[in-house]
Specification:
- The complex is a heterodimer of chains A (194) and B (269).
- Chain A has 194 residues and is an alpha+beta fold.
- Chain A folds into two domains: 10-117, Fe-S cluster assembly (FSCA) (GMP Synthetase, Chain A, domain 3, 2-Layer Sandwich); 133-191, no CATH class.
- Chain A is built from four helices and ten strands.
- Chain B has one domain: Ferritin (Up-down Bundle), CATH 1.20.1260.10.
- In chain B, helix 6 packs across helix 8.
- The two termini of chain B are 25 Å apart.
- Classes of the chains: A alpha+beta (194), B mainly alpha (269).
- The interface between A and B is medium-sized, with 26 and 34 residues.
């Protein structure tokens, strides 16, 4: 029995990006039973990025596809960066969460194409980043030119001032750059637009 | 016997596609390892983070390219004994296909930035072409890598400009690094039979096109950096693409490969 709808698979474009946590989980699929994408999403909504532990893998936009191969659940995940050391950890956490939720032997597949972009960060994810002290990406990655573009104005996530400056192209992880606020004088991470 | 078996990993793999993948993977791996050698030694904390993150991107790219190469090699030989780690840690210097440029020693910060800039300016245009490869696997790895390489080029360009158009000393050092590294740039732009085979198959772009774009990028940045561009007709060292390396690669591999070679059966480090 499925909680709602009858779509066996879904692309990210038509996924709900809000009220995932609150969705009805009573009809959660069990081993051998084809389930519903929303129920899987509800489970994945609790799997957090180990390096930014306030944003879920769904909000980060790295869960690209959910499908069933015969009776087996298949989740496609895309890495943020080629060398992101969290990739394996995230895949392991997704696997553990799904097994704990009763899915038998789910298959986690890594998918490179299309390459991840920060445009896939959900609005909820961006707000969570900001309240965690990390400035979310400014603007759209698809609209940037190859080189020579000027830096965007990155508002300080702590005081909101736009008087900020870039200290380094890279911050504590590959996906972030290091900024400084000239008003409140605090340094902060900026989640780079990619 | 084991040594012979290990050597065969690369020696019998001369299909043009595998060689092309080894070149891509080895460039990323060797330059990534140069970055890893700087861990704890960068001139400032911010640069430490930047160098390590660039290196990490390159290692990730190396894994994607070498992983594909290993799959092709395993299929050719009907074995499952070849993987990306084996290619990284069990080949000798003459089996590596990286450019001479990326194996050059770290030297001072101008050497590090100069090497990175000359490579990035080429890498970006090459990956841009590979992203339209007739081989879908290559196209997707290239599209992913291109995003990272673009960011790398932005950083290395900014540093070349800052150092070149900086103090008298930074200018002198940046110019010296450029003059020294220039002799290794010839093989970036010259197509050999493997490059030509890849072009004919629609797998890789025309190196002539990459060369034209590389020159435009280099000229633009060097001009802004008030640096003098060495001559394109200067004498050039070549050979990295076919396994003839400078002495520096052997030392780098000895350090990088020591652990997996000393404990070949270990599964957890």
């Amino acid at each position: 029995m499925r909680p709602s709808g009858n779509h066996p698979s879904a692309s990210i474009d038509n996924w709900p990006s809000s009220d995932l946590i609150g969705s009805d989980r009573s009809g959660l699929p069990r081993a051998g039973e084809q389930g519903d994408v929303d129920a899987v999403l509800a489970v994945l909504q609790h799997v957090l990025d180990p390096e930014v532990p306030v944003v879920s893998v769904v909000e980060l936009g790295i869960v690209r596809d959910i499908d069933w191969l015969d009776e087996r659940l298949v989740v496609n995940v895309t890495p943020t960066y080629s060398g992101c050391p969290a990739t394996e950890v995230i895949e392991q956490h997704i696997l553990e969460a799904l097994v704990a939720a009763g899915y038998a032997d789910p298959l986690i597949q890594r998918r490179l194409s299309p390459a991840w972009t920060t445009d896939w960060l959900t609005d909820v994810g961006r707000e969570k980043l900001r309240s965690y002290g990390i400035a979310p990406p400014v603007g759209s990655a698809s609209k940037r030119s190859l080189t020579g573009q000027s830096d965007p104005v990155v508002p300080c996530p702590l005081c909101g001032s736009e008087a900020t400056e870039r200290v380094s192209e890279f911050g504590s992880t590959a996906c972030k750059a290091l900024y400084r606020c000239r008003d409140c004088l605090e340094p902060f991470d900026y989640f780079k637009c990619l | 016997m084991q040594n012979m078996a290990q050597k065969n990993i690369a020696q019998t793999t001369q299909t043009p596609l595998t060689d092309c993948l080894l070149r891509l993977g080895d460039n990323a791996l060797v330059l990534g390892q140069r970055h890893a050698q700087l861990c704890g030694k960068a001139p400032a904390l911010e640069e430490e983070l930047a160098l390590m993150n660039v290196g990490l991107d390159l290692f990730g790219q190396a894994r994607n390219w070498l992983g594909y190469a290993a799959e092709l090699m395993a299929a050719e030989r009907a074995t499952d004994k070849v993987d990306a780690d084996q290619l990284a840690f069990r080949r000798d210097a003459q089996d590596f296909r990286n450019l001479l440029l990326v194996e050059q020693p770290n030297g001072d910060f101008a050497d590090i930035i100069g090497r990175q800039f000359l490579f990035d300016a080429w890498h970006v245009h090459l990956l841009d072409g590979l992203a339209h490869s007739s081989d879908p696997r290559i196209a997707e790895v290239a599209a992913k890598s291109l995003k990272e390489a673009t960011y790398h080029l932005r950083r290395s360009s900014e540093w070349v400009i800052r150092l070149g158009d900086g103090t008298e000393e930074s200018h002198t050092r940046m110019q010296r690094a450029l003059n020294n590294l220039w002799q290794f740039t010839g093989e970036l732009l010259q197509a050999d039979e493997i490059d030509q085979a890849m072009l004919a198959a629609g797998i890789a772009p025309d190196l002539q096109t990459v060369a034209t774009r590389w020159k435009a990028t280099v000229e633009e940045v060097l001009e802004e950096a008030t640096l003098e561009r060495p001559s394109y007709d200067a004498w050039m060292y070549t050979g990295g693409k076919v396994g003839h390396h400078t002495e520096h690669l052997g030392f780098l591999l000895a350090e990088m490969q020591y652990l997996p070679r000393a404990y070949p059966d270990a599964t957890v480090w």
